[in-house]
UniProtKB/TrEMBL annotation:
Organism ancestry: Bacteria, Bacillati, Actinomycetota, Actinomycetes, Kitasatosporales
PANTHER family for this protein: STRESS RESPONSE PROTEIN NHAX, UNIVERSAL STRESS PROTEIN UP12
Superkingdom of the source species: Bacteria
Similarity comment: Belongs to the universal stress protein A family.
Domain UspA: 2-136
Entry-linked Gene3D superfamilies: HUPs
Protein's recorded name: UspA domain-containing protein
Pfam family membership, one: Usp
InterPro entries linked to this entry: Rossmann-like_a/b/a_fold (IPR014729), UspA (IPR006016)
CDD domains, per database record: USP-like
Length: 136
């Protein structure tokens, strides 16, 4: 199984496309994973935390289905979509563990602050638990 992290950024879409090609060539299942972040102040303001970010997941799933329909017949990839909750690193790590990933594919961070703190991709690579491909 190939696990690809997807958050809607351009680099994550490129990572998903790369992972799709990898899954197709290896006849593997592609698991597209969106990690719903916790909204720390949301509960205090009365926002139902479990429902706060479901719109993003639904939008990503709709875009994935649209892409699959556009490419139908050209090539076929078995895929599934999962959502996990938490911070991006821990959510992807949990997804890769629970889904027994053979490989993880993520997009390179597009945020400047990650040079100081470290990006999700760098943290996944450093963990050494799965082969990780970082797509620019």
């Amino acid at each position: 199984m190939i696990v690809a992290g997807l958050d809607g950024s351009e680099s994550s879409w490129r990572a998903a496309a790369y992972a799709g090609g990898l899954a197709r060539r290896q006849h593997a299942l592609l698991a597209l994973v969106y990690v719903q972040p916790y909204i720390a102040g949301g509960a205090a303001l009365g926002v139902p935390v479990s429902e706060a970010d479901t719109g993003v997941a639904e939008q990503l799933l709709a875009e994935i289905r649209d892409s699959v329909e556009r490419t139908r017949g050209a090539f076929s990839v078995r895929w599934e979509f999962h959502t996990f909750r938490g911070d991006p690193y821990n959510g992807l790590a949990m997804a890769a563990d629970q889904l027994t990933a053979d490989a993880v594919v993520v997009g390179a961070s597009e945020r400047a602050g990650h040079r100081l703190v470290g990006s999700v991709a760098v943290r996944l690579v450093k963990s050494g638990r799965w082969p990780v491909t970082v797509v620019p």
